[in-house]
Each structure stands twice: as C-alpha cells, then as structure tokens.
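Q: Hi! First time asking for a complex rather than a single chain. Here are the components, and I think there are three in total. Is that enough to go on?
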Amino acid sequence: MSVEETEETPEIEAGVTVEDEVLDTLGDTVQTTEEHLNADASVVVRPDQVQDTLSALRDDMGYDHLSCVTAQEYEDRYESIYHMKQYDDPTQEVSVVVPASKDEPISQSAEPVFRTADWHEREAYDLVGINYEDHPDPRRILLPETWQGHPLGQDYDQDSPQIVTLSEWDNPLRDDHVDDEADTMFLNIGPHHPATHGVLHVKTVLDGETVADVDPDIGYLHRCEEQMCQNGTYRHQIMPYPDRWDYVSAGILNEWAYARAAEDLADIEVPEYAQVIRTMSAELCRIAAHMLALGTFALDVFGDFTATFQYAFRDREVIQNILEDLTGQRMMFNYFRLGGVAWDLPEPREEFFEKTRDFLEELPAKLEEYHDLITGNEIFQLRCVDTGILEPEVAKSYGATGPVARASGIDYDLRRDDPYGYYDELDWDVVTEDGCDNFSRVIVRMQEVEESAKIIEQCVDLLEEWPEDDRTIQSNVPRTLKPDADAETYRAVEAAKGELGIYIRSDGTDKPGRFKIRSPCFSNLQTLGEMSEGEYIPDLIASLGSLDIVLGEVDR
Amino acid sequence: MATEQLLPETIRTAVGLPDTVLGQGIAAFVGAFLVGSVMLAYTGVAGPWAKRKITAAFTDRIAANRIGPFGLGTIPADALRLLSKELIIPEDVDRPAYDLGPLIVAGSALLGFAVIPMGGLGPLNIQLADPESGLVYVFAVASIATLGLTMAGYASSNKYSMLGALRAIAQNVAYEIPLVLTGASVVLFTQSLQMSEIVAVQQETLVTIAGVSIPSWFAFVNPFAFALFMIANLAEVGRNPFDIPEAPTEIVAGYQTEYSSVYFVLIYLGEFLHIFLGGAIIATLFLGGAAGPGPESIGFLWFTAKIWGVFLFTQWARSAVPRVRIDQLIEIGWKGMLVLSFANLLLTALLVGVIA
Amino acid sequence: MIGILKSMATTMKHALDGETFTVKYPETPPEVSPRFRGVHKFSQERCIWCRQCENVCPNDTIHIVTDAQRNGEQYNLHIGQCIYCRLCEEVCPVDAILLTQNFEFTGDTKDDLVYNKEQLKSVPWYKDIDPLESREPDRGAWIGEGDGEVDYQ
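A: Yes, that's all I need. Here is the structure of the assembled complex.
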C-alpha cells in the first residue's frame, strides 16, 4: 500500500475541505497557510495567539491530541510547529505554525491548553532557543541548567567549550535543604537507582512515605540524536540510529518511523512483499519490547531478580534469535531501507518459518504462566489495582499514547487508525482496558503480545505462500536522495511505547534540514506526577515501571 | 523425659575441667564457640553459594559454576572479596551507632542459638543452655536485631537508610506480637517454656495411620498456628513478601545502603543468621526439634535439614511472591495477623481447657 | 491465596525440571546466525580503494589514507566506535570489507580497538563461517542501484 492513502480528506464529498473548515473556525487569526505533506491544513498564526488557536481547534473541531511541538530556526525567523491530531481519527492532522522574530524569539506557551506542551516547549527552548511566554516552568530540560547557547540554533558554535564558573556549580545539593520549616523530605530518586530503568532522576518530595511532589529530571542520556540525523544522509546514514532511541529490542519499530517519514517525503513506494516482512519483524520487536516491559515491571514490584523477570528474558531471547536470523543483529537491527528492507528472509526459508511458528505455538502456554505468576497473584493485584490512576482526559492532555493510553480506555492505535505497512489487511484487534491503573497497563501489554502473535502468524502464512517471482524486497530508490527543498512532513507509527513521530524538513540537500523525533516515552513520562502524587513510594516505583519508559528514547 | 547432659557440661567432663565457675565458664565458651561456628558456617554456605544456586534453580539459570565443584569455591573467594574491600565510612555518620549497628544485628541472632536444642550428634547433645524460660529468651534476643537495624539506618545519615530503618521498626513491631502470640499457643499445649520440654512433648504419637505413626509435632496438631507462624516469621526476617525494610527497587537497600566491606558482611550475616534462627524456632516449636527417623545420634542432621528447609522456603517465597506495600504490610499485620493469632490463642486455650 | 500458591507452584515447577536457558560460555560457544554482524575482515587483494565505505559510514569509523595516485596506503577501522550497521559491506562493490561472525574481541584501551589494515586482514572467521557464502543468496537485493546521481569519486 502507499503511504499517501491516508491523506484523503474525508469531507470532500461535502465540497468543503478540512482546510476551509479550519480557516473558518480560526477566522482572522490565520495569517497565511503552508503546505505540510502530512496535514490537511497548516495555518500560520501570530505568536500571541497560540492559546486561542489551539483551544479553538481542540474545542470546536476536536483536535484533542497535541502530538508534537517542533521548533526550528530559519535564516530569517524562528518557528514552532504544533502538530495536532484527533484521538478519534489521527489521520485528521492540522499543523499550527507559529513564527517568531529572529531578534526576540518570543512565542505564547500552549501549556494552559495542552499540558504536554510543558515539556515539549522546554525542549524547544533548550535546543533551539525560543522563549515561551506564560510557560509555568521555563527551564532547560535536556541540557544542564548552566549550558550556554542553544545547540540547534543557527549561530551556535559547536566547537566553543562549555565553561561554567565554579560559583554556578557551588554545592549542587544545596537546594535539597531549603525548606527547614516544612515536614516534608526531599529525596533524589536516581540518576543511580535500581528502579529508574536507566538514568532518570526523579526529584521527589516525601511526606512520610507519601509522595507529595515529583519532578522528573531527564537528559542524562541525551545523545543529540536529532542532530546526528541531521548530519546523516537520507539514503543510508540515518537508518542505523533509530535502533538506538528505544534500544530495548524495539529497533525495527523505530526504524519504521523514520522509513515512513522519509518515504513520505521522497515519495517512495514500498513493495508489498517488503511490507509484509516489515510488519512481521516489527511485531516480533513489539513482543520482545513488551516482554522486557513485563519483566522489569515485575522486578519493580517483586524486588530483586525474580523468576518473572528471568522467564521474560528467556522468552525474549527466542525472539532475538529469530530476529538475528532475519536481520543479522540482536538489537541494533538496521534492517529497513528506504523503499523496503535490507534482506529477504534467510535461507532455508522453511527453517525460519518453523522457528517462528514454534515460538508462536509456545507463546500461549508461556503467557498462561505469566498470568499464573503475576496477574493472578493476589499480592500483585493488591499492589497494582487502583494505583497509579491516569484518567483518560488527563492522559489526552499529556499526549499519552501506546499501552499507557490504551490502559486508560483511549482507543488509539496508529496501526489501525492511521494504517501503514500491511496492518489493514490483517485481522487483529486493538486492546483497551478501562482500569486506568498499573494493573491495566500490564494487562494491556500482555494482551498486545497475543495480538502481535496473531499478526505474525498471518504474516508467516502470507510469506509462505508468496509467489517466488514476486519477492521484491526493495523498490528502486535513487542512490542519493534529495527531496524538494522546504518539503515538510510529520509521520508517526505505533512503536512499542506509543506514537513515535518524525518530523523532517528538507532543505534540498541529501541531508535533512530539521529532523525532530516525537518520542512516546517523553510524553508518557510527563504523566508520572499525575499518577503518583499522593500515593506511596512503592506506587511511584510501580507507576514508573508501568509507564515502561526507555531513557534512550526520552532523552534521545 | 530426663534432661540430657548439655553440651558445655559434656565438654567440661570430657576435658576434665573442674566443676567451678571458671571451669564451667571455659566449657560454656568452647561450646558456644563451636555452635556459633557451625551456624556461621551455615550462613557462609547460604549467603554466597546456596542462595545463588537456589535462586538460579527457580529462574532456570546455572549460577555459580566457576570455582571448584558446583561452584563451591565461590564461598572462600567471596568471603575474601567482601572482607578485603575498602571500608567506606561516609562523612556525616553518627560514629559509635554506625559501627555498633551491624554488630548488634549479627550478635543478637547468634545469641538466640544458645537455648535451641539441636539434637544429638553421636554421643553429644547439642544444646548450650536449657533455662526454664527458653522460649521467652529466644523471642527477646531475636527482637534486639530491630535495635541494630534502627541504629544502622539512623546513623547512616542517608535518607534511604532512614526510610529503611523506619520501615524495619514498623514491620517488626507489627509482626512480633502475632509471632509471640502464636508461639504462646504452643506453650499452652506444652505447659512449659523450656525448649527441651517443648521438643519432648512433640515426640508422642498423634495418630497411627496404616502402621505409620505420625508424631504430635505442632505443625500437625495445629497447622493453622504453623501457617501463621511461618508468615509472621517471613516478616520477622524481612523476606518476600515482607522485604520492605530493604526493598531494593524502592529504597535502594534500606538501612544497609551506606555499609560496605566488613560492616556489610556483618549485616548480611546477621540477616542469614536470623533466617536460620527463625528456622530453628520453627523447627523447635512446630517440627519436633531434632526428631526424625533413625537413631537419636543423628538428630542434629534432622535439625539441620529442618532449618535449611525453612531457608529454602524463604527463597521460594522470594522467587514468586511480590512485595507488599508498607501500608498494606501494617494493615495485614495489625488487622489480619494479630486478630488471627488471638483467635488461634483463644481456640487453643479452649481446646486445651476442654481436653485437659 | 490460591493465586499466590499458583505462582509458587509455577516457580517450583521450573526449579524441579532442571532446565536452564543460560549457557556456560565460553565452554559452550553460542550459535551465531550466518547474517550476524561481528568484527570486520578486510581483503587488500579485492579492495579498489573507491572509498565508498568511508563515505557511507555514519559515524566516521573507517579512515582511509591514499597517496597522490590514489593507491591505498592505510585502512583503519575503529571497531570500538563502529555501530555494526553493515553499510560498508553493503556498498562495497567488490566484497573487500566483510563483517565476520566474530564477536569475541577485547582491548585494554580504546586505542587497542583501532584496527589497521593488517589487523583487519587477520581477523579470523568465527567457526569457519564465511559470511560471503551465507549471504550469497541475497546479494542481488542488497542494495538497489537506483536512478539519479551515483557518487563514485
């Protein structure tokens, strides 16, 4: 299938396009319009009308999902782009472009309308240098507070050393002891802590054992992934890197995000056979990633290296072996290519199919064992049911996606709602739970494993019967890709943790002008405060585990 | 049943020391040294090796396999490694308390073994002392460990240690009472607090089914009390589902976060000694002490098997049971265990009153 | 309570069946797929010094020095910096650089991991697997020639 299919404007029959409607709703606030490949309408508004625009779009037209905020600097201006979608139908996309002047880059904050804008705008300030008015917490987010300059800005000197005077670093622990009067205790959970799944630092204020306030401090694993992608060529050099965002074996899902955006941008067709292989390998990755999520969550609730964790790893190992046969690597696959995949299935094919089928056959029994081990366990239920509540409305405001959103009853899955690959040809279901709690998030992941298995089985059936002379794994793609200058697109796929979006703006060269990653974990992690404040420390840890964040993807 | 000669007395007569305070003292010291060494040897095997192997078996792994047969050489290697590490003492610790904490944790557990009748080994009867208030003494010294944990946690000048210490106190207070009450229900049967007497009462036959006579171990007489005691004991020794004073994924390592090297070894030893002491109490109160098939001279082996069985049970629970939350723990302790143990005590009292 | 007992029964079942999923490495060397990407092997006989691998490398791991006549002098590859994406092998028109299945390499310092031409040539095959053989069936599909500019030098 082609990636363009999703861009049909559904209102065409009425003779009114979405763009007309948007213009109608927004009235005079719109200054002009732009062309974004993904969006039905891209409107340019004045920097002091961001809140009005976004709330009008949300309240009057149902654009209730602020998927991403991209900031970039042009020769003559700064620009923030608010990528808006609808949770009911993510193919309905509107981009709100907010230019800001070069010498005084001030733009109104969208935080009062969408809570998720909080972190996204902090990141935009941090990396690009746009100041957001009315922002409740205008601090840097990925880089240290003392960083000088904004690395993705145009006049940033990569080579100048970061010299920070000692006085600025004078006793970094001092803040811990400010409030002598209060009865609360400040506690640093992380960056080195057994349960933060990487290097996350949660500044926690405790009232006894109760969590009074949490403030996740991220950026310890910031590796300039966006900048690295901006320095790589579309054709080859970007693809190895998505594996390293969500690095816990969800690599192929991430590669697909880049592949989808770039194929959209450069108008590349993908052969159907390759789409099936892509779908199958991506779902294998999803199972592996969910197994790890399950195992580490058990670790957080059980403590120590418990049986569940090891069993989950054992089962994940099987998938990794299959993926190793297919892609040549266990985690850093680099398997997708623009316009297809790098390799056909390994010869002998029967052996590969058999291996995959064996795994699928054993899976139900293994899942049954997990249910015996964890979800059926009364103490586990005691710990997880009704803790870490995330109400659907709150989740939407924070832009939560993936299993986290689906466990709050939000029926949102890009594989179905904004189909790509071969998903719309296959028979599978989107899993949702209404519990909104830690337990639901675990259940959703376990059931998604079953659904993924269904998808893989159908793909294997298809691949087995695929005619031998029609096994094209790559379409004919130019060796050097140079998409049209100023072509812009924002494309998302359903990665293991949720909606993984890529914004690419081409500047006419063989490298992207701006490459922005919308990480699902980044948005999901923002909800931690909502989930854990007022609960106990163990619940905070469990909630963090149930969010299933990967710091490599949060910090990028 | 006539009280057999205790271990120090045997030593004294064997060596020919005079029956004076000094002679008795020396003999008691030697006896205590021997028993203590055996118990420390058990923990030495349990900590670096058995625990790993058991956990590995539950999680389908191989574990320690490099040094010696079955990886047993890990034990001296680990001991050397732990002892030769640098002893890091953080800046703001409260010095005497910080140093005494680990000693109290390890020492209090060892003290408990003084009155445990460990059965016969050849001609010996391994029991150091047999006071009439033996059971009370065991419960008393076992609870001293909480003091050590509190000192360790409080003196460490670390917030995680502090949280761990507070949790340890809350947990021990909540579960000490059900533990003692359930122990008291056994005393109602035996009419004696003397450990040897408690064991002796359990040697009688309860019922004979098809020629197999089942002894009147209290685990068989009152399984309900046994289950209660096992659960309370898990909390007492701080193992899953009640390992919240340490709770590695929540508060790092609780009260022992700041300890390293020898001090860490002491705390670690103390914990394992406590598990074994818990096992010893359970064996004595509920599993007929050193009783088992075969002659009385191998009773010590049965006793050893029983305390290792209890150790195995703690590890088994650890592999499969999630940790409860602190408030849930307190709730289970005060609203569940306490009520159940009182009910158990009352029922036992009624039964004993009716039968007797 | 039943759930807890079920959990405990499950782990006990695993303890008693005696199966393990970990292996005793290095006594039991792991099976490695034919496509697995390990340390590179370089063939000077084949190399035509076209520098495509150097150009395609995403993080400048390959460093080639040629003289004025474009004859190859040095071929350095930092196997500690390499991300094992296999793009060099993919673009190589003559199979001069291959990723073997060999994953067993160490170095005391980062400098030890900078392999020069000679070291790259002497990298052993892992279990005698020649990756070229195992990957042969797919060679035609490795990379589309495509339209547009070809950036040979």
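A: Residues 187 and 193 of chain B are 6 Å apart (CA to CA). Let me know if you'd like any chain examined more closely.
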